[in-house]
Amino acid sequence: MRGAESTIWPNTLLSYLFILFIVIMVSVSTAPEPSPETSLTKHEQVAKEHAPEKTMTASMISIEKQVENAIKKAGQLIVLAGPSGVGKGTLLQQLRLKHPKLKLSISATTRQPRAGEVDGQHYYFKTREQFQAMVNAGELLEWAEFAGNYYGTPKAPIEAAIAQGQRVILEIELMGARQVRQSFPAANQIFIAPPDVSTLETRIRARGQETEAAIAKRLAQSKVELAAAHEFDTVIVNDCLETALQELEAAIFH
Ligand code: 5GP
Q: Beta strand pairing status for 77-81 and 124-125?
């Protein structure tokens, strides 16, 4: 009997083990796949919760960057700055004769028109109240006070021109150029410098339309502007008009 028992027990034990093995195998094969969520540690889950937000921000930044790069690559927005009397206006006139497709922004100003200046062509001449209303309505891309008058760039025509793929030039003073650098860091910023300061005074006086006080204000502001030349992407010395024009073309169409 003992001999019979000793052969039955191992067989029974083997059967139990075999059944147990089958049960385990079946339960393993039918167990649901652990979801990615449950396989994450608590720390990873918290990180994942914040991930969509991060991804959104990252993609938004990359879209902004793409637009920025497009502006930079196409050089669509060009800022031309430099002290009063440096010859920005003459350079731009010449430039537009050679490149009529370039769009020159027409600024609003509270300054009185000079002889020969036409409203809507050289500037939009505004009263202080009208200019203030434009500022309040958010219609200006940038604006600044210069030598006692206000000057500003109307926003809508610039945005429309850029959307159409046009190159737009803003001929503005230093404070405005700095504002554009904030809102359009990819704008191509060009500074026109005089060969020397006395040339500026001669040119400003040659206009013959400014009071002595206004000339003094412009000359004082010139020094501030010249000290900021290094902030710009390109500095062109307007000594010889032809050379300066070639350098300007190179800076714009490089
Ligand atoms: P002006 O009275 O000699 O025509 O211009 C005086 C200064 O104002 C120049 O340096 C000119 O570039 C600048 N200016 C002209 N339009 C604008 C403008 O829309 N915004 C700013 N910030 N400056 C301007």
A: unpaired
pTM: 0.73
Ligand 1 centroid to 51 CA: how many Å?
47
Q: Is 247 in the pocket of ligand 1 (CB under 6 A)?
A: no
Q: How many Å apart are CA 55 and CA 61, to the nearest integer?
A: 10
User: What confidence tens digit (pLDDT) does each residue in 92-133 have?
Assistant: 999 999 999 999 999 999 999 999 999 999 999 999 999 999
Q: Which of 92, 134, 151, 189 gets mutated to test ligand 1 (max ligand atoms within 8 A of its CB)?
A: 151
Report domain extents, the chain. Answer: 35-74, 75-253
Its CATH class, for the domain covering 75-253, is alpha beta
- Residue-wise pLDDT for 71-101, tens only, equals 554 569 999 999 999 999 999 999 999 999 9
Q: What does the alpha-carbon distance between residue 152 and residue 162 come to, in Å, rounded to a whole number?
A: 18
Rounded distance from Cα 123 to ligand 1 centre (Å): 10
* Contact 184 CB / ligand 1 (< 6 Å): no
Per the listing, tokens 């019979």 go with 4
